[in-house]
Amino acid sequence: MTEPPQPPNQPPSPSGYGHLPGPPQQGYGYPPQGPNPYAQQPPTVPQPLAQQGGYGFPPPGPGTPPGGRGGRRKGAVVVAAAVAGVLVLGTGAWFAFLSDDDDPKKPAAQASAPADPKPAGSPSVDKGDGSGNGMGEQTDLNAGRKPGEDRALWLKTAKLLADGDTGIPAPAMWVVGDSVVKTVGKSVIAYAVTDGKEKWKVDFKTEICGWADQTTADGKTVLAVKDGEGSNATCNQMKLFDLKAGKEGWTKELAKENLFDGGGSVSMNLTGDVFVVNRMATATVHKLSTGDKLFSGNTPEGCQPSQYAAGNGKLLGIALCMDDDKTVEIQDADPVTGKKTWSYRLPKGFRVTSVLSVSPIVLDISNRSLDNADDNKRAIISLTPDGKKRASMSAEGSFETNCNASGSDNIQGCGNSVVDGDTLYLRTAGSKGYDNEVVAFDLATGKAKWRQKAGDKRNWYPVKAANGQLIAYRAGALREPGEIVSMAAAGGQPKTLLRMPSGPSANIESSMVTFQVRAFEDGRYFTSTTRLNGNNAEERLLMVFGK
Fold it and tell me: What's the rounded Cα separation, in Å, for the pair 391 and 388?
């Protein structure tokens, strides 16, 4: 086995790097890949943040009505046990995890954000009762419900005609207060969580081409739309958007900073009163309340951040160094000034595939050699808050991270991985396409804490993790209902929180397992598609389950 050189600030590690063949994939420091509109969407449940005042919204007038992403790469990772060396990957590529090189001290777990307020069930605009089966018929979704099973609350369908043959994107979903909000084409639509009735709809003149998965505590987020129609349109119109009221705030044009900033999509993330915008070769940070630019990754010399990640009040910069090896450096960044206080250099040739968590810091990295495809290696590593190596994750299995699987080339938001406190949760890729496992990793040691099998031709899909509990969706076998369960970070048997009903509901649920965005909030499970065919026929858009 071969072992890549260690970065300057990292001591030598024991052997354990695999010498494995695999196709090269792009990483940071290279232009992103093109769109994959059919990739599975990761969960985009709002992460409540500290309340911010102002936000630049104009005061509403009397009787004023509401104002009228390239693809992420789906990936599977092989985690090599320290004694096993290398293992086979299930998606045509081969990887090995970097071995750990030290036994760092475990830092304190990060506190979880407060939960959204409970839905109040406010009055809805009656535009359909959500009782259809998704195929243009009205049916009782709970007709086959068995004792002990919970209910399908409602199903929302859409009958739309796409302009072209690529369908209609519907990638984003937020659960905010008593509403679940979806992007569909050029529109943002809110439905009441209790009955699925439409509450408001805002139509933009051009395509939605960027959005933040996160929201503020009062339900605001940031979007981007194109400056026109056609293939030459640029994604450069940023908007503050109130997801509770269905109203726009400020609109600011995203200034072009180099020749590569004229793309058709951007990725956006927010924390506190700042949000980041990542483009093909430029990363900028802005003030959420005004939209004003605070700083960019363009520096006159040294290592220039080409991407920023945001979360838990912190920013991370992914910087490309101007040395002969084009080294990638991880940096902290002050959310207001961009000033760094520490940096961590990856081994030669390695790039950041995804940021699984900003605080604690968890990175998916790969060397993805363009010169030697037989020497590709991959790892998930954890860092300390001051940028020192903690551990490399190590366990047997083929693990799907589903990174960059929504509508934009976002370095955050891996749909099959979640992090809470000092635990990383990943799902394995079942050898038969089912019967997979969910595995909990200790970020301090890199070792697997426990594994839980789905069994019975079922599949696990992590949804979120908070307060020491993993919330996961366990999909049923074909045409069988699934369930929502919780599992403690310390281990133990899963606890069922919600059982979906049998009968016609299970048939629909089974058809909505892949290419979905999921959320579990206030005892309700939300699942929605990320793209419609747009063939002027009834299509299933959004389904909700509860007690």
Answer: 10
Measured between alpha carbons, how far is 454 from 522 in angstroms, rounded to an integer?
Answer: 24
Tokens of 104: 């760092």
Round to whole Å and give the CA distance between 359 and 356.
9
Instruction: Give the amino acid at 330.
Output: I
CB-CB neighbours of 118 under 10 Å: 12
Q: What pTM, to 2 d.p., does this model score?
A: 0.78
Per DSSP (E only), the strands in 95-243 are 151-161, 168-169, 173-176, 179-184, 187-192, 198-203, 208-211, 220-226, 235-242
DSSP 467: T
| Ordered per-residue pLDDT tens for the chain, 547 residues | 233 345 544 443 333 322 222 333 333 333 333 333 333 333 344 433 333 334 444 444 333 333 333 333 344 454 433 323 222 223 333 334 444 443 333 333 233 333 333 333 433 433 544 444 444 445 799 999 999 999 999 999 999 999 877 899 999 999 999 999 999 999 999 999 999 999 999 999 999 999 999 999 999 999 999 999 888 899 999 999 999 999 999 999 999 887 777 788 999 999 999 999 999 888 999 999 999 999 998 776 789 999 999 999 999 999 999 888 889 999 999 999 999 999 999 998 899 989 999 999 999 998 865 555 566 788 999 999 999 999 999 999 888 776 554 444 688 877 789 999 999 999 998 777 788 999 999 999 999 999 999 998 999 999 999 999 999 999 999 889 999 999 999 999 999 999 999 999 999 999 988 888 999 999 999 999 999 999 999 999 999 999 9
CA 470 to chain centroid, in Å, comes to: 16
Amino acid making up residue 77:
V
Starting at the earlier edge strand, list the strands of the sheet with 535-546.
151-161, 535-546, 524-529, 516-521
